[in-house]
From TrEMBL:
Top-level taxon of the source organism: Bacteria
MF (Gene Ontology): heme binding
Domain Heme NO-binding, residue spans: 2-161
Protein name stated in the entry: Heme NO-binding domain-containing protein
Pfam families assigned: HNOB
Matching SUPFAM superfamilies: Ligand-binding domain in the NO signalling and Golgi transport (SSF111126)
Amino acid sequence: MKGIVFTEFLDLVEAKFGLEMVDTIISQSELESEGIYTAVGTYKFSEMLQLLQHLSTNTNIEIDDLLLVYAEHFFDVLKQSYPGLLATYKDPIDMLASIENHIHVEVRKIYPDAELPTFEVLDKTDNSLVMVYKSSRAMHHFGLGLMNKTFEHFDSTATIELEKMKEDGTEVKFIINRN
Ligand code: HEM
């Protein structure tokens, strides 16, 4: 997992819960990196999982809810870091349908070692999109947060339903309807 995911996560934890919480979750985890991340580095996903688990225990907030809020913050980071990628799109449904064949393809060019999910489009109309998320990281709520923010970016909203195709969340169907 790319360092930018860790640095932005820890910044958000500091902003929402304070520096003490950052120190607590780092010291409760067993981290090869020792909790020192650079944006361009690459670190084990298991480090993120430990940080999330400890944050969840210490705050009593479910991991999925933490991922949802984190994704909303991360979207703003992506928007600032890659304005050109977003500027290609005029419509949120077109943009979300293009993650697999365009957006993440570009990401892979910037970070060849990025660990990205796959999104398979099953059905698309002007106002709806059905796609299947697959990733061993089961970060579907991170995807949900990014999707919500994508609609917001285009001054729009949507109703998004998640249907787990595998109990462990490694395969999830997203049913997206523009409001
Ligand atoms: C992960 C870039 C848009 C879904 C990531 C990562 C980067 C990235 C750098 C981390 C990879 C790693 O740590 O190795 C971008 C950029 C975008 C964009 C530059 C737009 C300009 C989106 C959108 C979605 C999405 C709109 C909506 C569903 C995800 C998910 C992950 C991810 C779910 C977590 C990894 C996983 O589940 O396996 N993306 N992304 N991305 N992205 Fe994107």
